[in-house]
Design a protein that fits this description.
sensory transduction, membrane, cNMP-bd_CS, single chain, four-stranded antiparallel β-sheet
Length: 713
């Protein structure tokens, strides 16, 4: 280390000086912590809690087991230590990075049990089975009625049918026996129990019937699609897929509209197939009512089915009895099916727009109320703006209405995910972790209870969140938007801008004496969404958490002190050398500042005046002592005159400069003594005056006066 001469003339070691400064700083911090601990024992000790005593070790395993464990650990360490190899795919001139095949296999590996409500892979599999089911439902009637399946393309139809049958078999043998189920409120995931439950259900019977191989009849009757009609019995999987897909979609009503439209198109498809079958039965082109065999046969029949099912009219009149009966049944079926589908479509759209209708109804009722009582137009516009922004920002007017339908545990889970991160940022409510030895945070359960009581309120631009001089009864947490703190002489100066995640007004919750007053105006800068927690709600919560209440009170005091400190000035240069060992000079007490408040000559004059007054007071005390000594001397002289005089010498009284510690008060009943007169006489006695310390520390010194006779020579 280098040493540099200081201006004072001696040399200091920089390293030693830095170490001394660090030691002094730590000692001061430690002393401050202990002072606070003595003032308020609620705070925990800064010392770490003692560690638990080490538990007894288990007996060592046999040597063989040790070797096996060591080998396993070495393998794990080798596996962890090896970095993951990068896998690349070369394609033309480019090189793409792809994950290894092992990760794909782990993800695609079928679990032992499947949760049908949460496993997305199961939903994807149901979609594949649903595609196979729709293939059979749409193309089996089409191939049976229309002459689209010919010997030249039979192989293609047969190939697709085999693929669909494989999907049916995999679902029957692999997936469905692994699906979990509920029994007495318990989720059963045992393989044997799941297999028994599936085999005893109606779904299993229909699935078995749907995969029966009636295609063997092809060898006797040819490739007739009618032998595959049993494939349409797997409808349970189709409806299960609809339920699972709606549960995971954000806007499920869109899929409901598409599904209802698909139902309508499928019914029209079946009606077109029936019309072509009836026309073929009567003979193509035999009458005006049947299909004449011209153009695209499927589109012509589908057009007729649409006009008949929707009862548009304008169709040729049926001629034969078969045609009349078929047309009547078609009309009745069309009215029933079409009205049902229209009603279902209305319900789907109504459910999708229920929230919007509720919003419009509330807004219309509010506007009607304001018009009835002649509310000013400016206020009405602000109310409309609040409705529009609240609906657009959160999709509902009151979030609590949605959460009230759920159990308390679910409400708490949602509140933790949405609001816990924001509340935990507040210094006043920081929760303590279970691993924290000091436990300086609030009880986590208390924070959870508080999350359920938070209220969300939207403020428009320019709205006053709180005004200067109001009694603070709420704490505000900014969820979205900005607010500005205004101050200055006219109250329009922007002191600070608070953004999302900031907190203000938390000290008002724990202020004693009914709450403290706001010191500034807080205005919403734009649209601001705030969480509010009032004092009454917090007190109801703290009744069940007394320890957290004490800690919150202590934190509130600390925060009040910190907020009450003046703004920091320019940095003060720290003293160098040994001067840092001594603390900073204490400020002059306020009483002395008031007494010596003058500056320059006025302050010096006041100081001299006080000095004179003090001297006068001391002289008066000395005068009292002199009077007392004079009276004592006169008494001794009176006693000496009665004795024979041997030697006469002048004796002068001696006055002590020390003031008496105990001041004897004159008796009020006694007569006043005549003034003392000094007489010069010769006596053979001497007067001894002494000051001795008092046995009591508070009384100071005691004045003693003794009279002794002189020794004869």
């Amino acid at each position: 280390s280098t040493q540099e001469p200081t201006p004072s003339g001696f040399q200091t070691n920089q390293y030693a000086d830095a170490q001394l400064q660090e030691i002094v700083r730590k000692i001061r911090e430690r002393a401050t912590v202990y002072k606070e601990k003595l003032k308020d024992p609620v705070l925990s000790s800064p010392e770490g809690s003692p560690t638990a005593s080490p538990s007894k070790k288990k007996p060592p395993p046999p040597p063989k087991e040790e070797k096996k464990e060591e080998k396993k650990e070495e393998k794990k360490e080798d596996a962890e230590g090896k970095p993951e190899e990068d896998h690349y795919c070369d394609m033309l001139c480019c090189k793409f990075k792809k994950p290894p095949l092992k990760k794909y296999m782990e993800y695609l590996r079928l679990p032992d049990s499947i949760d049908s409500y949460t496993d997305r892979r199961y939903v994807a599999w149901l979609m594949l089975v649903t595609v196979a089911y729709n293939w059979n439902c749409w193309f089996i009637p089409l191939r049976f009625v229309f002459p689209y399946q010919t010997p030249s393309n039979t192989i293609y139809w047969f190939t697709v049918d085999i693929i669909c049958d494989i999907c049916y078999l995999c679902d029957l043998l692999i997936f469905q026996p692994r699906v979990q189920f509920l029994k007495g409120g318990d989720i059963i995931s045992d393989k044997v129990e799941m297999r028994k439950f599936y085999h005893s259900s109606m779904k299993f019977r229909l699935d078995v019937i749907s995969v029966l191989p009636f295609e063997v009849l092809y060898f006797f009757f040819g490739f007739n699609p009618a032998f595959r009609a049993n494939r349409m019995l797997k409808h349970n999987t189709f409806f299960e897929f609809n339920d699972r897909l709606e549960a995971i979609l954000d806007k499920a009503y869109i899929y409901r509209v598409i599904r209802t439209t698909g139902y309508l198109l499928f019914i029209l498809h079946i009606n077109a197939c029936l019309y072509y079958w009836a026309s073929d039965y009567e003979g193509l082109g035999s009458t005006r009512w049947v299909y004449n065999g011209k153009g695209n046969m499927y589109l012509r029949c589908y057009y007729w089915a649409v006009r008949t099912l929707i009862t548009i009219g304008g169709l040729p009149e049926p001629q034969t009895l078969f045609e009349i009966v078929f047309q009547l049944l078609n009309f009745f079926l069309g009215v029933f099916v079409f009205s049902s589908l229209i009603g279902q479509m209305r319900d789907v759209i109504g459910a999708a727009t229920a929230g919007q209708n509720y919003y419009r109804s509330c807004m219309d009722n509010t506007v009607s109320y304001m018009n009835t009582y002649s509310i000013p137009r400016e206020v009405q516009n602000r109310v409309r703006t609040w409705y529009e922004y609240t609906w657009e920002s959160q999709g509902m007017l009151d979030e609590s209405e949605l959460l009230e339908q759920m159990p308390t545990k679910m409400q708490l889970a949602i509140a933790i995910d949405v609001n816990f991160a924001i509340v935990n940022k507040v210094d006043l409510f920081k929760a303590s972790s279970f691993t924290d030895e000091r436990r300086n945070g609030c009880d986590t359960q208390m924070i959870y209870d508080m999350l359920l009581r938070l209220k969300s309120i939207v403020y428009l631009p320019g709205d006053f969140v709180c005004k200067k001089g109001e009694i603070g009864r709420e704490m505000y947490i900014i969820k979205q938007g900005e607010v500005q703190v205004l101050g200055g002489p006219d109250g329009t100066k922007v002191l600070v801008t608070l953004r999302a995640g900031a907190v203000f007004g938390e000290i008002s919750l724990l202020a004693a004496g009914g709450g403290n007053r706001r010191t500034a105006n807080v205005v919403a800068h734009g649209f601001a969404n705030l969480f509010i927690l009032d004092k009454k709600t917090l007190n109801e919560i703290l009744v069940h958490y007394p320890e957290s209440e004490k800690l919150l009170m202590k934190k509130a005091k600390v925060l009040l002190k910190e907020k009450g400190k003046p703004a920091p000035g320019p940095p003060v240069k720290q003293p160098q050398g040994l001067a840092n060992l001594f603390g900073k000079k204490q400020e002059t007490p306020t009483l002395f500042k008031v007494m010596f408040g003058g500056k320059g000559k006025e302050g010096l004059t006041r100081l001299l005046q006080l000095k004179r007054e003090q001297d006068i007071q001391v002289m008066s005390q000395k005068t009292d002592i002199g009077k007392y000594l004079t009276s004592c001397f006169q008494e001794t002289q009176a006693e000496a005159e009665s004795k024979p005089e041997q030697e006469e010498k002048p004796v002068e009284p001696v006055a002590s400069s020390a003031p008496p510690a105990q001041k004897e008060e004159p008796n009020s009943d006694a007569k006043p003594k005549p003034p003392a007169v000094m007489h010069r006489r010769i006596t053979n006695e001497s007067l001894i005056i002494s000051m001795t310390p008092s046995p009591r520390a508070e009384e100071g010194e005691i004045l003693k006066v003794e009279v002794k006779e002189k020794k004869k020579k």
